[in-house]
Design a protein that fits this description.
The chain is α/β, with parallel strands linked by helices. It has 6 helices and 8 strands; from the N terminus they run βββαββαβαααβαβ. The protein is 38% helix and 18% strand. It has a 4-stranded parallel β-sheet, sandwiched between helices. It has a two-stranded antiparallel ribbon with strand order 1-2. The protein has a two-stranded antiparallel sheet with strand order 4-5. A hairpin with a 2-residue loop joins β4 and β5. The two termini are 21 Å apart.
């Protein structure tokens, strides 16, 4: 898999990896190593310029919608609307994934509790700390119960307690639910 940008910059230069179902795969490297570019290709946000990739058995170039149905992604920059509450974000995300209103409420309440945002669920996100936004982003990535979860620098901006809770949740997802986790970190 490779990605070259204009000007000849090769951000990803022919990587070849395989991640087994249920595995937690840590993709390590310094800033600028191509970790986020790789995640963007695997989540269909950026097309590769060479090579191929399948995620959940689907080709990232020709079956992007199927890939996106199978995955959850919490990337470095959370795409949150500061005017919406966490609960409203859950309704929006759940609706985009075709969940029923009852499933959205059940799943949203469960996830907001799990990431420690139940008490702040009706507050607008603009008042959230950076760590709260990261935890909401994780919950949103899980609303449709994906089989594969991509986490790009998931503990950036988290305090020690939140970091520990994040790693516990990653382990729980893998051990109890068989979720494959692909995460980047320095």
């Amino acid at each position: 898999l490779a990605r070259e940008f204009k000007g000849g910059v090769r951000a990803v230069d022919g990587i070849d990896i395989e991640v087994s179902p249920g595995e937690i795969y840590g993709f390590l490297g310094p800033n600028g190593a191509g970790k986020s570019t790789t995640v963007h290709m695997l989540t269909t946000l950026l097309p590769p310029t060479a090579g191929s990739a399948t995620v959940a058995g689907f080709d990232v170039l020709t079956q992007g919608a199927r890939v996106r149905d199978a995955i959850g992604a919490a990337l470095q920059e959370a795409a949150l609307d500061p005017q919406l509450s966490a609960r409203e974000h859950m309704r929006l995300q759940g609706g985009l994934h075709g969940l029923t209103p009852a499933d959205i409420k059940r799943r949203g309440d469960e996830l907001l509790e799990r990431v420690g945002l139940a008490e702040a669920a009706d507050r607008r996100v603009r008042g959230y700390s950076g760590g709260m936004k990261r935890r909401l982003d994780l919950a949103l990535a899980l609303v449709h119960e994906p089989s594969i979860l991509f986490l790009d620098e998931p503990t950036t901006g988290l305090d020690i307690q939140s970091r520990s809770a994040m790693w516990d949740e990653v382990a729980r997802l893998s051990n109890e639910q068989g979720v494959t986790v692909f995460l980047t970190t320095q």
